[in-house]
Structure formats: C-alpha cells, structure tokens
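May I ask for an example protein's residues together with how it folds?

___
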Amino acid sequence: MTEGLDGPFDTLIFAGGLETFIQYAKSHCGDAVIGFIANFRLPASSIGRLSDMSEDFGTAECLPDHIHPNSKGYNLLAPVIGDWMQALAIASAEQT
C-alpha cells in the first residue's frame, strides 16, 4: 500500500506508480513544474468531475469508448494541454 509523500510506494497499483514517477521527476528535474491532468475526480480531491469525456468531444469519432481518446482525440487535446503547459512556464518564469 502507498504510505506517504516520500514512499515507499506500491508500484503494483496506478497511484503508487504515478507517485513513484512524480518522486523520481522531482528528484531529477530540479524545480520543474509537474502537472497531472485527470478527467475524473480523485477520492482525495475536490477538483475534477465524475463523468466521461463525451461532452468535451461530442463525438465517438474521437472518443470511441467515451473515456480514452484515439489519435483524433489527442489531436484535439494537444493544443489545449500545450497552452496550459505554456501558461505554467510563463508563471514559473515570472516567479523567478
């Protein structure tokens, strides 16, 4: 079971694998900003929502199973995520 912010983490579950990845990135990437985009509300978080992503795409052509984007779906998501990442970089630069 995942124990805490410093580990050890149970890498047999998704949360433990994600925590291991974030811990590794934080220890090897200096002051890099790390973002994790979640469609679904996580149990310990008040942000996110409990729905599929259909309303974001409006078509099964981009989201065949209503949860996982295909290549057309990722082509729609990429610019939005890119803009978000650029905003993080600008905010980070303004803080230094």
Remarks:
- The chain has a mean pLDDT of 75.
